[in-house]
Every structure is written in structure tokens, then in C-alpha cells.
Backbone:
């Protein structure tokens, strides 16, 4: 596990974007695993800058997102489909048919999960971008006695819904369920890029990266992967040396 600490958000974002773009430079048909939330916004902005200033093309790349809320249409401004268009897809040259998210509006959600897993098997992810939840979740894989390997529907923990409530008009509007890639799917990525910021994540960073491997901290399973790069700001990483 390669852990790097950064003094500024700008440096962290630039480094993360460069890693993702380098995958596309090395293989124009690269498959990128993408994340949402506040963590990747600056990274996507840097990728857009590189697309424009360095003429990086994403025309032949493919993307798979980690998750999507159940019950939100892609036109809903709180859906992750909307988020991805707003923060990345609309600003680069990737064809829309090469961008994939789980369909949270599917009438048959188990069938949708199977469909998504088949696509992931057909096009393995070259580099998977991850954030880290306060309770150690990656994607929407919440702590529990056991974890699902493949794409599945998950009931969101109250603390996860509370953490995401800032994006909604009220807590009542935060969906209770989501479709998420499973931990097994995430761990099949050739390379994993975990990005974490803020003092409020310092405890869970230490647990995930140096604590026991346990389903109570889903991110701890990243310790089993041979190629994980962890990018932290100083506050998020301040307890690692303790």
C-alpha cells in the first residue's frame, strides 16, 4: 500500500488526476472506476483541465461508477448520474454510451445488479477511484457481519444518510437505499486509488489502513489488494504515525 500525504487540496487533486489520466495515456481504451460525493470534485476539475490544456482524449475510454441511489431519476439533481454529467462527463469527449452507472430506477433491481456485474466482468476496471465514509464504507458497502461481493441493493445506515443530507433539502429526501458495487467487484480492479480528506476522517483512516481486516470496517479489506495508492491530506493522515 503506497500512502502519500499532501499539504494542500490542490496538490492532492492534481496528483490524483494525473494518476487517472496516465491510465488513459497508457491505454486509450482504459476502464475507469469512478466515485461521487465531495471528495472527487476537485479531481474531476483537474481532469477537465488536462483534457483541455493537454488534449487528453477520453473518446475510447469506458467508465463505471460505484453506485447510484434507488428511486432517483438521472434527471434528478441529487442523482449520481446528474452529478457525473455536471462534474465530468459534459466537459470531456467521452461518448455517453461508454459511461455506466447502476440504474436505481430499474423495475427489477436484482436483475439490474446482475447486468452491472456482467459488464464489469467483460470490462475489468484498470483504476478504481474511492472515497472513504466515516464508518469505513467504500461505495455504499456498509459495515456489517458480512459483505456482498457483487453489485447489490443496500439499505443505507443512518449515519451515511446523515452525512449525505447536506446535499438534499432535508433529511427526509435522502434515499434509504442504493445500488452499489460490492467489495469483491471493487477488489477486482487492477489498481485502486483511495482519496481521503479532513480531520474528521483521521480515526477511520487509521482503522482502515492499519487496523484488523474486518467487515466492521469495509475499507480495511483494501489491505488485501496488491496495488492500492492512498492519497491523504495532512489532517486525514495525522493519526497514522501514532
Residues:
Amino acid at each position: 500500500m503506497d500512502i502519500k500525504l499532501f499539504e494542500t487540496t490542490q496538490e492532492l487533486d492534481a496528483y490524483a488526476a494525473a494518476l487517472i489520466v496516465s491510465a488513459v495515456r497508457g491505454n486509450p481504451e482504459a476502464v475507469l472506476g469512478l466515485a461521487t460525493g465531495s471528495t472527487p470534485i476537485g479531481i474531476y476539475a483537474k481532469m477537465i483541465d488536462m483534457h483541455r490544456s493537454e488534449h487528453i482524449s477520453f473518446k475510447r475510454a469506458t467508465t463505471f461508477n460505484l453506485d447510484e441511489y434507488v428511486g432517483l431519476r438521472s434527471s434528478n439533481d441529487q442523482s449520481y448520474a446528474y452529478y457525473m454529467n455536471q462534474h465530468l462527463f459534459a466537459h470531456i469527449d467521452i461518448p455517453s454510451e461508454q459511461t455506466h452507472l447502476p440504474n436505481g430506477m430499474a423495475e427489477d433491481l436484482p436483475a439490474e445488479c446482475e447486468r452491472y456485474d456482467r459488464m464489469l466482468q467483460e470490462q475489468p476496471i484498470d483504476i478504481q477511484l474511492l472515497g472513504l465514509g466515516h464508518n469505513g464504507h467504500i461505495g455504499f458497502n456498509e459495515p456489517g457481519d458480512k459483505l456482498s461481493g457483487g453489485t447489490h441493493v443496500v439499505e443505507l445506515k443512518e449515519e451515511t444518510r446523515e452525512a449525505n443530507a447536506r446535499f438534499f433539502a432535508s433529511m427526509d429526501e435522502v434515499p434509504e437505499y442504493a445500488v452499489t458495487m460490492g467489495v469483491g467487484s471493487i477488489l477486482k480492479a487492477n489498481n485502486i486509488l483511495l482519496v481521503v480528506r479532513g480531520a474528521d476522517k483521521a480515526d477511520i483512516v487509521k482503522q482502515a489502513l492499519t487496523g484488523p481486516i474486518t467487515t466492521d470496517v469495509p475499507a480495511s479489506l483494501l489491505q488485501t489488494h496488491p496495488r492500492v495508492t492512498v492519497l491523504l491530506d495532512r489532517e486525514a493522515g495525522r493519526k497514522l504515525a501514532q
Summary: The mean pLDDT is 94. The chain has one domain: 2-233. The longest strand covers residues 191-196. The beta strands are 2-6, 31-34, 62-65, 67-69, 99-100, 127-130, 152-155, 177-180, 191-196, 228-233.
